[in-house]
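Protocol step 4 of 5: obtain the predicted structure for the target chain.
Materials: sequence only (see below). No template structures provided, no constraints applied. The aim of this step is simply to have a reference model before the mutagenesis design in step 5. Sequence pasted as it appears in the construct record:
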Amino acid sequence: MTSAKIEVLPMSRGRFITFEGIDGCGKTTQFHMLGHWLRDQARQVVETVEPGGTSIGQQIRKILLNPENFDLRAPAELLLYFASRAQNVDQVIRPALEAGQIVLCDRFTDSTLVYQGCGRGLDPATVLQLDRIACAGLKPDTTILIDIDLETSLTRARRRNERMGLAESRIDDESSAFHGRVRAGYLALAAAEPERIKVVDGRASIGEVAMRIREVLRDRV
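Step 4 output (structure tokens):
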């Protein structure tokens, strides 16, 4: 994957932290654990998710992740992700940052660069152009990339879907080659932006991964 950096404009007083990783990496668990830990430190925290985060975003999420929508074409998928993101940025993320709060987001534009860019083969320049429209220069201060091997990822994703049902399994159902391209894309982004994107090994225990994330963020929040 060629280097693709998100344009950044001056940030607000808050801190914007995103969580990224291939399916089954444990990022959502760690995302919520970090929120609890920060609140224990008397910090004001807003948690949001992509796609979703707002009532409108949740409606878009149902379209994007429903396995019945197997014929959803890549350009339409890309536009739907950014429609959800634009609503989330304007309604939730920017107001919280302007109020000086810490915003934790489960996925952001990095996900789109690797899933729709590397996975689907869409032009990263198109993804970044839409990012400029939807996010108007908003960029995470820190991104936690939880990395695991492909076999572990697919095994965990299957177990999760068996436990929770298949209502949001459309992306999980993609081929192992697709998920391999996504992981490679994430690692390429991390190599291109090592100061922002911090890679954490997700194969350790939940508690160990949580401690490593806190160490990464200790001087950043």
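Step 4 remarks: Confidence is low (pLDDT under 50) at residues 6-12. The chain has eight helices and five strands.
Proceed to step 5.
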